[in-house]
Amino acid sequence: MSEKHLGPGSDLPPLKKDTLRLYGMRFCPCAQRIVLALNLKGIEHEVVNINTKNKPSWFIEKFPTGLVPVLEINDQIVWESVICCVYLDEVYPGYKLVAETPYQRAQDKLLLDLFLTKIARSVHAHYRSYDGLDEEQKALLLESIDKLENELKKRKSPYFRGNKPGLLDIVLWPSFERIEGMDVLDGDCLPADRFPLLTSWMDAMMDVPAVKNSLLSADQHRRFYKNLHSAQPLFDELLG
Ligand code: GSH
């Protein structure tokens, strides 16, 4: 299926029985989490990308939240990226994204909560307004990222999941990929002297084939976010 983002006037691509479909958008960090889950687990699927600024009418009728990502297979529809990742992990055997023990799953949930409320929200504030963070917000963001650095130190492993990436790694990754492109830290990437373990984690993540395949450059992110609020935001034009 083509990567092209469908907009008004497009038709709903016909659904095939037993084929898992992801409605996504190439620049959406939440949809990228699902792409990573699908690819790490080796799940066969198709992707329908949506122009989220000018959505097709069938998309809004079918999915009233109007947001991507959404998963659909036969009569099942699942949305919200973290819920989608856990759903995929529970339904499809093989590579496991969630931790093995209830205690570790509880620890991961706590970290996930910190990340979603204190880090992702701050990084992606740009998504809606493209206002930079002020000095105080930047300091708070860095303090929250300190907690992730400490957690990696505690876990003594290259990935949050252990020796291979898991749920936390794929939920966190898209925001870290975007920190530089979205100019969250004034055009810098994550300071390696303050975050040595997270910097190594980023290097390790970039070696994972599923991550490499979904990776967009800092320049592509920058151009996408700068353009998002224009009358005709760019989607396919930036993919090249
Ligand atoms: N909490 C949701 C998740 O994790 O899936 C957020 C999904 C979301 O905000 N998606 C954005 C979207 O569809 C794209 S990154 N925006 C379209 C709109 O706001 O109308």
TrEMBL record:
Location of the GST N-terminal domain: 18-96
InterPro entries on file: Glutathione-S-Trfase_C-like (IPR010987), Glutathione-S-Trfase_C_sf (IPR036282), Glutathione_S-Trfase (IPR040079), Glutathione_S-Trfase_N (IPR004045), GST_C (IPR004046), GST_omega (IPR005442), GST_Omega/HSP26 (IPR050983), Thioredoxin-like_sf (IPR036249)
EC number: 1.20.4.2, 1.8.5.1, 2.5.1.18
Domain GST C-terminal stretches: 101-234
Reaction catalysed by this enzyme: RX + glutathione = an S-substituted glutathione + a halide anion + H(+); methylarsonate + 2 glutathione + H(+) = methylarsonous acid + glutathione disulfide + H2O; L-dehydroascorbate + 2 glutathione = glutathione disulfide + L-ascorbate
Domain of life: Eukaryota
One of the Pfam families matching this protein, by short name: GST_N_2
Record's keyword terms, sorted: Oxidoreductase, Transferase
Function noted in UniProt: Exhibits glutathione-dependent thiol transferase activity. Has high dehydroascorbate reductase activity and may contribute to the recycling of ascorbic acid. Participates in the biotransformation of inorganic arsenic and reduces monomethylarsonic acid (MMA).
Family the entry assigns: Belongs to the GST superfamily. Omega family.
Protein's UniProt name: Glutathione S-transferase omega
Record organism: Saccoglossus kowalevskii (Acorn worm)
The gene coding this protein: LOC100369976
